[in-house]
Amino acid sequence: MKRYWFAAPLLLPLIVILIWSIAIPTNVIERLLEDNLSRSLNLRVRVEDLKKDILFGLEADSLTLYRDDRTIIKIDDLKLRINPLTLITGTLDVYSIKGNLGSGKLKGNLSISSSSYKAHIEASNIDIATIPYMSGFSLKGTDSFSGNLKIKDGKGEARFWSNNVVLDNAFIAGVALPLKAFNDIKGALDLSPGYVDVKSFSFEGSELSARIKGTVKAGTMDMVMEVMPKASYLNENSIFFSLLNQYKVSPGYYAIPIKGPLS
Questions:
Q1: CB contact at 8 A, 214 and 201
Q2: Which DSSP letter does residue 37 get?
Q3: How many helices (H) and strands (E) does the chain have?
Q4: pLDDT at 18 over 80
């Protein structure tokens, strides 16, 4: 029998593949993914038509995040590569994530268990119109943004940027914001459970600039948008800025409060 022991290392990968293919049903993985993501993100998660391949890959038609019954974000053509051995301990270790968000792309990695999670996600060329949650802010536009997210157990950071963006003016928390005048946007957020610290959020246009600072705590915004128009823009848009006159601090400087529930 000893002469056959050399074959054990060769058989181990085959045994793991058989266990993956036969002994671990797809619906178990789907439930693990949905339940652990829901618990970690405090959102409802729905995975559609999950399939697995023989080389420890998973594919799903879509993964959707909901707050109550409202769609936050929907990722299509989701492809995952996992470490199958971690499933024994109830951990889902995803070393490769790829998916589509509208015409944009997502990639990254994720490790999640019943008590902990961490993720690093990169997004590129995401069209604002493909994010349903943005409609709650009357925020619409064309072109796209890119960014990245690093998070562990609710604490982390998010960075995003967009060049040559075209936005429509919007009402946020009941306040009119002149978003149409901006071309470039970039931001940095620090994240904690139930808390977002807006470290920097800047808007740049040829004749108008602005920045947002403040926090979002337990779903409630407490922020200020500082708007700084050039004199020529202020004169050309005097009617619009007359609506903001109550927020005027000094000539060419407006501080607009953004307060209330994060819709």
A1: no
A2: H
A3: 4, 19
A4: no
Contact indicator for 235, 241 with CB cutoff of 8 Å: no
pLDDT higher than threshold 70 for residue 140: no
For residue 3 the two structure tokens come to 């002469």
With a CB cutoff of 8 Å and minimum separation 6, the contacts of 125 are 103, 104, 105, 144, 145, 146
Higher pLDDT, residue 86 or 248:
248
Distance between CA atoms of 17 and 56, rounded to whole angstroms?
A: 8
State the pTM of this model: 0.78
Q: Is the pLDDT of residue 216 over 60?
A: yes
> Helix/strand/coil (H, E, C) string of 99-134?
EEECCEEEEEEEEECCCCEEEEEEEEEEEHHHCHHH
Sign of CA dihedral 240, 241, 245, 246: positive
In contact, 139 and 162? CB cutoff 8 Å: no
Provide the token pair at 189. Answer: 């957020």
Q: Residues 51-73: pLDDT tens digits?
A: 988 888 899 999 999 888 888 88
pLDDT-derived band at 106 (thresholds 50, 70, 90) equals very high
Question: Quick count: other Cβ atoms within 10 Å of Cβ 7?
Answer: 9
Cβ neighbours of residue 90 under 8 Å, at least 6 residues apart? 32, 113, 114
**For the purposes of burial, counting CB atoms within 10 Å of the CB of 197, is it exposed (0-12), middle (13-18) or buried (19 or more)?**
middle
Three-class DSSP category at 14: helix
